[in-house]
Amino acid sequence: MKLCYYLCLIFAFLANVDCIMWTLKPNTQKCLKEELQGNVPVVGEFEVSEAMGQKVDYVVRDSKGHILAQRDDITKGKFSFNTENYDTYEICFISRAPPNVRGIGQDVSLVTKHGVETKNYETFGDAAQLKPIEKELKRLEDLSNEIVQDFALMRKREEEMRDTNGSESRTILNIILNTMLLLSESTNSRVLYFSVFSMCCLLGLATWQVLYLRRYFKAKKLIE
């Protein structure tokens, strides 16, 4: 029994329950984002403090802008949706205050659950005639399976990122090698042109020296 108790504490600590509170300033919006796998149920419960003349809306959408849940002028309520694909989902709360009203901040509290935590094991256990410890073990089994799936997804993403980084590194290395090869070919051609130019200069200088010495010796009547 003690082992089951400690397991319950550990998995309860790892449960996918998020609770957050903040103050939403007038005419602003606050968005919370989270990456979720496909086919995952998500439920949320929110509460917004009232302010005279002000309204708060909420909208839930994916990274492509598809709206999954939406409601205007909220104070307290719940929402639920199912994810379709692995994606980043966001929950936005938008404050609206009239221009002639000096707005005040409104307190917003949000509790979200997804995956195993959205299931009602009390109802499931009563229907299956399970004992309380069996209900808890069933919940822990589902939670452990969900954690294993999360780790498998993280490993898959790590492999994809590693492959992507490897291909990018090879591409960059090829670009660097090609650039160095072009620079080397350009440098070789420049060295060749410079060598030819230097030889022409040396030949011209030698010819000028011979002609100059010949005129000098003729002027001194040393040669005819």
TrEMBL record:
Keyword field contains DNA damage: no
Looking up Pfam families in the UniProt record yields: EMP24_GP25L
Compartments reported by the entry:
Membrane
Q: Which InterPro entries match?
A: Emp24-like (IPR015720), GOLD_dom (IPR009038)
User: Chief location of this protein?
Assistant: membrane
Signal peptide interval: 1-19
Which ranges carry the GOLD domain? 29-139
What keywords appear on the UniProt entry?
A: Developmental protein, Membrane, Signal, Transmembrane, Transmembrane helix
Can you tell me where the transmembrane regions are?
Answer: 191-213
Record's GO cellular component, any one? Answer: membrane
Keyword Heme in the entry? The reply is no
**Membrane topology, record value:** Single-pass type I membrane protein
The record's comment on protein family reads: Belongs to the EMP24/GP25L family.
What name goes with this protein?
Answer: Transmembrane emp24 domain-containing protein bai
Taxonomy of origin reads: Eukaryota, Metazoa, Ecdysozoa, Arthropoda, Hexapoda
